[in-house]
Amino acid sequence: MLAGCLGGGDSSDVPPAQVGEVGDTSGVEQPSSEKIIDNEDLSPGLRGVDANRNDIRDDIDRLIAQKYARTPEIQRAAEQKARALQRNMEATTREEALRAGDAVERAAECAYQTLPRATREQVQFREDMSKDIEALTANTEERFRAYWAANRLMSGAVFRQPDGRVCD
Q1: Which of 13, 27, 29, 133 is deepest in the core (most CB within 10 A)?
Q2: Looking at the domain assignment, is residue 6 inside a domain?
Q3: Torsions phi, psi for 160 (to 5 deg)
Q4: Enclosing domain of residue 155
């Protein structure tokens, strides 16, 4: 399996390549103003508040605990996705972005392995989990711009489905 985008595998989630300079988000749908969780971290900067220092913003930790902790395995898969997306958003070089892209692919595969039966409910649950964590990760204009700038750094890259152990 080859993938060249982030998000639920839907290529419409990715902005057109080379819309403008890195960081230009013209032509890209801006983040929704709809709240995903109460007490959302809208502080300046990319990192936000991470009181327990687990490399996941506290508001994303709350989202995972409230919506994506049906089992310890699912919770760990959601946390892996959150860390990978944060790392992706913080990438400032092509090399960092490619490593982060690999981490996002591993996290997506972990979610699929954690919920292997393809029932309609499980597919929707995985898609919702990915979209919610992605949306909350890039929930301010600064984070949104950094997220798409990192995605542009990966432009043209091909990611292969990871082999072996994919869950952290």
Answers
A1: 133
A2: no
A3: -95, 155
A4: 52-161
Distance of CA 128 to the CA centre of its chain: 12
Q: Tens-of-pLDDT digits for all 168 residues of the chain?
A: 333 333 333 333 334 333 334 444 444 454 455 667 888 999 999 999 999 999 999 999 999 999 999 999 999 999 999 999 999 999 999 999 999 999 999 999 999 898 877 789 888 999 999 999 999 999 999 999 999 999 999 999 888 888 788 999
No. of H helices and E strands in the chain? 5, 2
- Please report whether residue 9 resides in a domain: no
The answer to whether 76 and 167 are in contact (CB under 8 A) is yes
12 lies in some domain: no
Looking at the chain, how many residues does it have?
168
CA pseudo-torsion sign 146, 152, 157, 159: positive
Domain count, the chain: 1
